[in-house]
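Good day; I would like, with your permission, to put a structural problem before you. A protein sequence and the structure tokens that stand for its backbone fold form the material at issue. The record follows directly beneath this note:
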Amino acid sequence: MAAGEPIKFGIIGCASIAQKVSRAIKMSPLSTLYAVGSRSLEKATTFAKDNDFPETTKIYGSYEAVLDDPEVYAVYVPLPTSLHLKWAVLAAQKKKHILLEKPVALSVEDLDVILEACKSNGVQFMDATMWMHHPRTPQMKQFLDDPENFGQLKSMYSTFTFDAPPHFIENDIRVKPDLDALGALGDLGWYCIRAILWAVDYELPNTVIASRNPSINGSGVLLSCGASLYWEDGKVATFVCSFQANMTMDFTATGTNGTLRLDDFVVPVAENKASFVKAAKSWWAKRLLGWMPRTSEHDVSTDLTQEALMVEEFSRLVNSIKTEGSEPDTKWPVYSRKTQLIVDAVKASIDKGFEPIEVVS
């Protein structure tokens, strides 16, 4: 494969999120949508037609057929979480680089098996946490790392919720214990936890305590929950995730000198522009009539969507491995594993009656 040649992607599974990522694969100049497979040829054909796949896209009636295609260099896996272990491991064994939908596994034990398969087969692993690839993200981190204007990080708050309709609550994959047993914690809480870890440079908390009174359906799957995370140096973070509240995607980080805030951290309101609000060295105005200086809003424009930028970064890493003999970038598996550790700790705290859970890496 020549340097710069677009990476040929295969998609295994036709979940709704694959509509967004398949579009991103088509948008990225470093990738091409080469193949899609589902459990039936009819479903794969319909999915490809409904999402305007190129006429040259290979259509397969099984996941195995995509993995067996020698032209497929990388696979995007949007399958239910319970199927990730089997298919991600098989993809790695067949030397396919893996972009895996989140949550990446049902437990860190399962994820470790996936990551070991990727490592032993020399393939790149990345989870599909899309907001991390938006150009807004490094600009926000630059502010968080500014000792003069932000200072020492003290607290974080994150929430990701949406009010799911009745048919979702009753029938969606994400509320089925045999498909996505982590429910809202895995689907939405993953983003909140990742944002918190991103802000602290992936320093794991010492303790996690789940919030009381989570909402759980009749099958034992979480519909809403939350937790608090505690660090030895006094940092604290709280998050809430829910299928039963109005759509919110808030993230706030507060330091000794400044505050960062945004209300669309998972999916920006607009594809071509995203903003964040920051404040530094705020204090009361004269006679306590308000406060100053005023918060400032900062816009960040992008020519490509955050999903396409994710695909572009992944494709760049894969191309480097294929053409230059580079090693896979190990930071992405680390980010995924630390996020999964916190997901597991929250679930364990809920299962144990909201006891504090020590986080052990």
